[in-house]
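Run log, item B.
One chain of 415 residues. Sequence copied directly from the ordering sheet:
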Amino acid sequence: MGQTNILSEAEINGLTLDQFDVSDPAIYQQDNFRGYFKRLRLEDPVHYCADSEFGPYWSVTKYDDIMQVELDHETYSSASHLGGITIRDNPFGKEMTSFITMDPPSHTPQRKAVAPIVAPGNLRNMEAMIRERTEMVLDSLPRNETFDWVDKVSVELTTMMLATLFNFPWDDRRLLTYWSDVATANFDAPDAPVRSDEERMEVLKEMGAYIARLWRERADGEPAFDLISMLAQGQDTKDMNHMDLIANFVLLIVGGNDTTRNSMSGGLMALCDNPDQFAALRADHGLVKTLVPEIVRYQSAIIHMRRTALKDAELAGKRIAKGDRVVMWYVSGNWDEDAIEAPDTFDIRRTKSRRHLAFGAGIHRCVGDRLAELQLQILWEEILKRDMHFEITGQPERIYSNFIRGIKHLPVRIT
C-alpha cells in the first residue's frame, strides 16, 4: 500500500482488503493503525498480503489467534535462519542468533542464564535503588518551562537501569540507548542513525568489541550478579561465539529499553489525554497497580512479532503453508473487542488489566516484564507523591517504524 497520507475512517473503509498492507511504518508514525486492524478483525482476522516491501505475509489480528501462534513453537518458529522475529527478514540470521530467535532445546539454557537477575527476589532488592534514581530524576526536572520528557525522564531512567543490569561503565551509559536505536532503526526514517544493513553491522561490531572487553574481564573474575558476568560465567553461555554475543546483547538492550522507555512516555500522554483518569489516580494512589498494565497495553510498544511456519497448518480457517511468514500484530490483539472490554478506552480501573499481549506469551514472553512494570510503578508513585501536574506543550513526535511503537520527543511543562 505504501500509504503516506493519513486516511480517515471512511477512506479506510473504502479500501478493498487486498489493498491492505499494514506493514507500512507510516501508519504507526501517524498513529493511524486502529481503523485498518478493526476492519481486519471484523472481516478477515487472518489476512494474506500477497505483496509488500517485505514480501508476502499473513497478518494475525485477533487476541486468541495470536495466542495460538505464540504457544505453538513446534509449528511457528522464531529461528533467525528462517527470518527471525520481525516482518523484515533478518539479513544476518545465518551468522548470529539470540535466545529469542531460537527454538527449544537450544533456546532454554540461554534464557535460563539471564532469568535470575529479573526474578522476584532480586526485584525486591532493586526496588530501593530504582526509587532513589527516580526521585533524583524527577527532582531535577525544570518547573514552568518546556522540556523533552523522552530525553529527561524516559531515556534517562531506562538507561540507568540497563547500565545497572549490565554493570556497564556509567559515563558511557547513553551508548546503550544509541545501540538500541541502531538495532531497531528503519533505514527510511528521516533521522535514521544508520542507512543500511552494512552501516548497522558496523556499529554493532563496535558494540561487540566494547562488550567483549567487559566479557573477558569478567569471565575469570569473581562471580557477579550482572548480565554480562552471568553470561560470561554461565556453563551454557560462556563459550558463546562473538556474533551470538552481539545478537544476545542487542536483544537484552532492546528488550530492556523500548517497552519501558516508550511506556513511560506513552503513559504520560494517555493520562494527559484522559484528565478524568488522571484525577481518579490522584484521588486513589492505589490505582497505580492497574494503571501500569493498562499503560503497557495502551502503548503496545512492540507493534508486531513474526514467526515462520515450520509445516502446513490451519489458523482461523486459513491454510498456512510451510515457510510462510506469519505476523502477530500486538497492536491489534491489544484492541480486540472480543478479548478486551472497550479496548479504545484508557481505563486505569480495568478489571482484567493483565490481559494483554504487549509482553508476548509462551516461551518467548518478555523475560524482564516484571522489571518493566516495577519501573513504571515506581515512576508513577513518585509523581503522585510530588503532586506533579503536566501540560503537553507541543505535538508528540513518533518514530517511523512498524516494529517499535515509539515516541521520539514529547514536549512537556510541569505546572
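Observations after the first pass:
- The longest helix spans residues 242-273.
- The CA atoms of residues 107 and 214 lie 24 Å apart.
Flagged for discussion on Thursday.
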